[in-house]
User: What shape does this take?
Amino acid sequence: MSRLKTGITIVFISFLLLLAIELSLRLFWPQATVISFVGPSLHIPLPDTEIGSLPRPHAKAIQTGSEHSPVEYVLNADGLRDSSPHRGDRTPGTIRVLLLGDSFTFGAGTQYENIWPVVLEQELTKRGCNVKFVKAGMLGGDTRTEYLFLQHIYPKFPSDIIVVVFLPNDLFTNVPSRKGASTEYVQTQAQSVGWFRKSEDLHSIILLERCLLSFDRLYTWLYLISPRSAYYTTPPSDTFREKIAHTEQIFSDFASYCQNNHSELIVVSIPQLFQVIWAVNGYSGPVDVDQIDRSLTKFMETLGGTWITTLPFLADLQKHGIETYYRFDGHLNKSGNVQLGIFLADKLQSRLSSRTAKTVGAGQVR
Assistant: This one.
């Protein structure tokens, strides 16, 4: 009986201790992501039968979390996180760029003025490029939904250049653009909607996860025991080949759309944090974090488009002690956004300057 009492006492004291830790975290160091909406909308994505979801016009929300200060999300009348006014037609002498992507382009976790599309536009303007970006990042998107969204938004904002932002996680859900959304994409959409609700996880559990994920070795090990490892292991898996083929078909559709509308196609590839960590540490094993970029770069060349990979650049920053990602959230942080915006300005400046000079000389765009 005395052992039973001792056991009960230990369990009770442990429970009180864990409860005290949980309450202390909630009061003094909250770990959960919390979204507070301004207005009647319940979440930002607006259900759409064809695309899956569309950004909700005039939505406004404030996000708080343990990895960053409060972030405000404000969408305009077109459902875009873009404070710049855009005319329906093209402005003579100005290059319009339509920027399509997922939450990395939307700028999840970062104030609007610091997201890389805004930094990129400002940098190019400072360097003398007469350019305007239509910032059409959408939460939970993949390459297929971005192609469908292109058809939805391009007629509103005809553009000289279409920039598609690709992330390796697009491969996980991509299916041919003529088919319905994959099961994986539907699940991703559900998660993106849930991302805008208060997390129900215990704050102590979230803190424990953050601590564990702060170790590079453990972070990469956890990633490699997940189904997503199939996209990086060597030799390439059947799953990898299938998803690459699906993605190539979607980019072929992008290229055809651009050609039909006399627009240039550029793809910017942003890596997952896993790839950056692996590249920085030079881990050995049957893993190739560059194989997705290599495969799609070659294919994009056959389409006459441009593929810009950012993995070497972001890995170099990390190697020099510049943290560019939120470790737990996985998105680019403020520093990562700013650095990426400047990097892409370097990549695009000469191309856009040449285009601007031609359009000014001609007195019109195209």
